[in-house]
């Protein structure tokens, strides 16, 4: 984000607009198809094609892969995102103004039942836990 708010295409001030976004540094892929194991497999597969910097748990039922993309062309990123969507990723994450899960954030009203079933014990309900971080890919 370049500022807290921006103008929508209709001229209204909003927290959610393209006007308050800058160039991409990360392309975030929300793999919310299937269980957490399947989502992790999709993200790990995509990591063979692009540098995976982090994986964040939504706090309940999805994983967000943060792929470092600073300096990559929009065309290259679009091809990568289209492939991710073909594997079940959420196409809305292509939008630069789309909200995403932040490491150590919180999601109100979620439960951790699915997290426990995948072996992710000890994560409080709703905590958007950082499950993986690779500082080597972030230049």
Secondary structure elements and pairings:
Elements: E1 6-7, E2 13-14, E3 26-31, H1 36-46, E4 52-57, E5 63-68, H2 74-86, E6 105-106, H3 113-117, E7 127-128, E8 130-133
Antiparallel strand pairs: 1-2, 3-5, 4-5, 4-8, 6-7
Class by alpha and beta content: alpha+beta
Order of helices and strands: EEEHEEHEHEE
Backbone shape: globular
How much of the residues is beta strand, in percent?
15-25%
Q: Which percent range fits the helix content?
A: 10-25%
Overall number of strands: 8
Q: Main beta sheet, described?
A: 4 strands, antiparallel
Order of strands, main sheet, comes to: 3-5-4-8
Instruction: Report Rg.
Output: 15 Å
Distance between the termini: 19 Å
Roughly what is the average pLDDT, rounded to an integer? 82
Number of helices: 3
Low-confidence stretches: none
What report would you give on this structure?
By secondary structure, this protein is α+β, with helices and mostly antiparallel strands. It has 3 helices and 8 strands, in the order βββαββαβαββ. It has helices spanning 36-46, 74-86, 113-117; strands spanning 6-7, 13-14, 26-31, 52-57, 63-68, 105-106, 127-128, 130-133. The strands form 3 sheets. It has a 4-stranded antiparallel sheet with strand order 3-5-4-8. It has a two-stranded antiparallel ribbon with strand order 1-2. β1 (6-7) and β2 (13-14) form a beta hairpin. It is globular. The model has no long low-confidence stretch (mean pLDDT 82).
